[in-house]
UniProtKB/TrEMBL annotation:
InterPro entries: NTF2-like_dom_sf, SnoaL-like. Residues 9-113 form the SnoaL-like domain. Pfam families: SnoaL_2. It comes from Teichococcus vastitatis. This is SnoaL-like domain-containing protein.
Length: 129
């Protein structure tokens, strides 16, 4: 691996800040599994790059492209990176903010699996409301 998992996570989030989900496709392994089951119909378990990119488009649409994600802290192994992510967005009722733990698994330099754990599920529900 040219870059370790932590460097890849930082690069991935830097690219996400451009608000162009299609730019992320090369980062997503064809067998990707993306899981945030607690948020149900909006996230749940997504399979493959198409479903993940669709969810990212929906997140931008739900917030008028104001959705922002920042990596606050990371820890890595040879193939995984766990990151604390702070997020925010503007919604018609005012700003919404939250924090989650994201765990990314890599195959080469592509994300093969991602699991997300909300610090406060009410924040995620407010985001999608």
């Amino acid at each position: 691996m040219l870059n370790g998992p932590t460097a890849l996570v930082h690069e991935f989030y830097a690219l996400r800040r451009r608000n162009e989900p299609e730019l992320l496709r090369p980062w997503l392994h064809p067998a990707l599994r993306w899981c945030e089951p607690e948020v149900g119909r909006h996230m749940g378990v997504l399979q493959g790059p198409d479903q993940v990119i669709d969810m990212m488009h929906r997140a931008l649409a739900a917030t008028g492209s104001s959705f922002r994600l920042e990596v606050a802290a990371t820890i890595e192994t040879a193939t995984h990176c766990s990151a604390v992510i702070h997020w925010s967005a503007e919604k018609p009722g005012g700003p919404v903010r939250g924090q989650e733990m994201a765990v990314y698994g890599f195959r080469g330099e592509q994300i093969i699996e991602a699991f997300f754990f909300a610090a406060n599920l009410a924040d995620d529900h407010a985001f999608w409301a």
